[in-house]
Amino acid sequence: MSNTPMAASPLTRAVLEIDEYASGLGWDQPARLFALVDTARLRAQEPGLAAQLGLQDEPETTGLTPIEQDEIPAGKPLDEFLGTIAWPDAVVGCALTVERLMLPPSAEASVPEGLSDKKLAKWVAEHPDRQEVRMTVGVLRDGTRDSALRLREKDAPTEVLTGAGLVPGLAEALSATFAD
């Protein structure tokens, strides 16, 4: 992808590629799940699929190819849905991109106690300091993790924050999809 640094690890490049793809779709999108497969293995074992994905002209480097999965069922909590996933051996990792509202740490002290999940979501949505964020989190079977965060108010490829520990809860939930 054009905005992905070549010096980055294959997982970082895959996460940034997914972030760029999601950015092209615009905001207010549903969560999207991706299988991550080894590009060289995909080319060797599935040349037709690799050609369909435009991978036949890619340089012969190690890398990961994200393959978008079926739509996540609407109305089912994300954690429950992730708990139903099992990946075949050919999948070396997975990634998820999801939009959420986020509050700065300074707002934590003012969160009312005892709110139901629904009332808490409403309170956050009405908070003046809320920010919309798109989180893209990727994990590999070996436990490697990476994330990309993009704020709606700073929606530019140069403003994407990356790091392994940015969304630990989501990374943990994705890693659990590889548990035996």
Automatic annotation (TrEMBL):
Alphabetical list of InterPro entries matching this protein: PPA1309-like (IPR047681)
Protein name: Uncharacterized protein
